[in-house]
Amino acid sequence: MTREEKNVLIESLAEKLNDYAGFYLTDISTLNAEKTAALRRKCFEQEISLVVIKNTLFAKALEKAGKSDDELTGVLSGSSAVMFTNVSKAPALLIKEFRKSSDRPVLKAAYVEESVYVGDNQLEALINIKSRNELIADVVALLQSPAKNVISALQGSAGQKIAGLVKTLESRTA
Question: What DSSP element (H or E) covers 105?
Fold first, then answer.
């Protein structure tokens, strides 16, 4: 691979790092062709981009994208594949599901919600992460709850009593 080709690849990876919300570094080295194709198919179905990379080129792409981290570059050894995603926990769920029939992929590290998770033992933590949209939905539901209680009370028998009291008070002042 020529220097120009490497620079083009680094630029492409840096663009992907900036285009996607997060990424997972994995090891899929012992998967045979059939299982690798199945993994790629599942990634495609869930809008996850799976790319097998050279560690040194990915480290340079991380630098170029401004996401270089000692923990991330520290796991760049051996065979590496990157799962780019906009849904932070989708790759973690995919890895867990895929491992029911295989011992790979192994999670090396993940960059999710501007945090770095290192090691395969972080898979459960990544599965339990709520996305930004899920957190916003939770806050909205919490804010709506008291309003819903007041509305339901006004629509029920208590509401009829309050409406009766208001009418009585209006007739007295008139």
Answer: none
